[in-house]
Amino acid sequence: MATDTHRAIDAVWRIESPRLIAGLTRLVRDVGTAEELAQDALVAALEQWPTEGVPRNPGAWLMTTAKRRAIDQIRRNETYKRKVEEVGRDLEESTPDIGTMVAEDDGIGDDLLRLVFVSCHPVLSTEARVALTLRLLGGLTTDEIARAYLVPESTVAQRIVRAKKTLTKAKVPFEVPQGEELQARLSSVLEVVYLVFNEGYSATAGDDWMRPALCEDAMRLGRILARLARREPEVHGLVALMEIQASRAAARTGPGGEPILLADQNRGRWDQLLIRRGLAALETAEGLIDGKPGPYVLQAAIAACHARARRFEDTDWERIAWLYELLAEATPSPVVELNRAVALSMAFGPETALTLLDQLMEVPSMKNYHLLPSVRGDFLRKLGRLPEARAEFERAASLTRNERERTLLLDRAAECGDTA
């Protein structure tokens, strides 16, 4: 029975912790303190629920318990009277019966959105933003984040602690930015969510090709953000992109976990529900655009081209190449150019795209990017230049940190025959 209760507490915590921390941050104006209060409420639940039973509204129970702890803490600081009155009024408006009270929904959406912008604030490093977001909004423990990113737990813990201190020291306001600052900050938020998704979709290191749990966390964060920022096309574009990409998950690996490339995937295994959700989100995003589409809308449109093709041979590569050209204008990047080269190769032949790849090889940031020699090897193989192709696949294998991908690349090198 106690085990069932602990499972229930774990499930409730995953669902309610972002709302709880967001609401508490609004009151105490400090993310670190808010998380400590939320953790105190969790400890209280672990102590009381196994004997008293899970309350009818567990989220409200946790919030009220945490607010009472906040009052106790506020009594010990210099702003005692003002803060106690503020939190006390909040409690008085709640139903007194802690076991049956109604959840406090007023302003909770705004609080969550504020917490998203605080967690992803540019004052933090990218690694810190990712860790703090997964901790506060994903409900993950430091151990879970560490295992997902294959780093020591102590490293993640330090990142989170430093992030909270940095936010406090910088006096980052608990608010949604306005005007031009909103767009600048929103790009940081979307970047963090997409970084989490990509790490799950194509793990950069380790033994697994994919980490589905990270994809699910990112999609959940994206859906929350889409509900909170309904008029932002890029938010819906990111959700569309993730939904469509995730639809291929079951077809991307074989029985032993080995990678299966897009051309070889069984499209009957693609999740049609996720595809429909993704296409609907893309339609919403495109309906909100005022001017040129942003990078996430464009990437979602590219993913939609793949989703709509019943067979690999039916893919509209010319449209994809055109969309990558627009993406390169919106966000110039050698990685975008690499993907554009692939689309050009599929649409017009590898000779057309090989020159573009040769130019990318001179870009310093691409020197050790394993996908560049991988793509170049594929082009050379199609042109019948097998010894050169094999050398490129072997170089790509030496650069990747993912064991599954290394095996795939070495297999492709072997298929090109002996270079001797």
UniProtKB/TrEMBL annotation:
Residue ranges constituting the DUF6596 domain according to the UniProt record: 185-285
Superkingdom of origin organism: Bacteria
Annotated PANTHER family: BLL0085 PROTEIN, BLL6612 PROTEIN-RELATED
GO MF annotation list: DNA binding; sigma factor activity
Keyword Chaperone included in the entry's annotation: no
A single BP term in Gene Ontology: DNA-templated transcription initiation
InterPro entries named in the record: DUF6596, RNA_pol_sigma-70_dom, RNA_pol_sigma70_r2, RNA_pol_sigma70_r4_t2, RNA_pol_sigma_r2, RNA_pol_sigma_r3/r4-like, WH-like_DNA-bd_sf
Protein family according to the UniProt entry: Belongs to the sigma-70 factor family. ECF subfamily.
Domain called RNA polymerase sigma-70 region: residue spans: 17-77
Protein name: RNA polymerase sigma factor (Sigma-70 family)
Residue span(s) of domain RNA polymerase sigma factor 70 region 4 type: 119-167
Record's keyword terms, sorted: Sigma factor, Transcription, Transcription regulation
Annotated Gene3D superfamilies: 1.10.1740.10, Winged helix-like DNA-binding domain superfamily/Winged helix DNA-binding domain
